[in-house]
Amino acid sequence: MKTIGQDEFYQHVTDFLKARGIELTDGAYTRHIRRACGLLSDALNAAQRTVKRARQEVDQKLAQLRQSIHEATAPEPPPAKPPPLTPEPPPVSPPPRSPRHAARRPPRQPAHQNGRGKSPPRQDRLLEPDRRRIRRNAGGASRQVAS
């Protein structure tokens, strides 16, 4: 913010009073009002400087706090690998494929994975000890059949 001059504040007060119908003439009251306006403008300017300095200090402390939080919550770097005892040969890349091979179809999936054909037996129908299925006939009696 801009600083407020001592005479500037007094001038605003006299303009305000003049708009209300009160005119200040030279005298004891006017000198006291001028002195009070000077003290008030000095106090406001000092408060502005103090607030500006406090804001800078708060911003600095906040930056330090953010940095400490960042350091405390940052993931730890992976442990450094010890150098190998024997140098490893560089990885060998496979030879480039011809365009004909690049257009090849992907390998086929088993029938139960792509939705066609018979699916494998469901695990919840198998008995754990002897891995036999339980089938129920129309009469409701059950019998065990080896799978």
Could you characterize what this model shows?
Helix content is about 45%, strand content about 5%. With about 150 residues, the protein is mainly alpha-helical. The protein has a domain at about 5-75. It has a two-stranded antiparallel ribbon. A hairpin with a 5-residue loop joins strand 1 (about 135) and strand 2. Helix 1 crosses helix 2. The longest helix is centred in the middle third of the chain and has 46 residues, at about 30-75. It starts with 5 loop residues before the first helix and ends with a strand. The model has no long low-confidence stretch (mean pLDDT about 75).
Features:
147 residues, mainly alpha, two-stranded antiparallel ribbon, elongated
List the helices and strands and how they pair.
Layout: H1 6-19, H2 28-73, H3 99-102, E1 133-136, E2 142-145
Antiparallel strand pairs: 1-2
**Unreliable stretches, pLDDT < 50, 5 or more residues?**
none
**Straight-line distance between termini:** 89 Å
Q: Number of helical runs?
A: 3
Category from helices, strands and their pairing: mainly alpha
Beta fraction of the residues?
Answer: 5-15%
Dominant shape: elongated
Instruction: Give a quick account of the main beta sheet: strands, pairing sense, barrel closure.
Output: 2 strands, antiparallel
Number of DSSP E strands: 2
Helix content: 40-55%
Mean pLDDT rating: 77
Rg (CA only): 45 Å
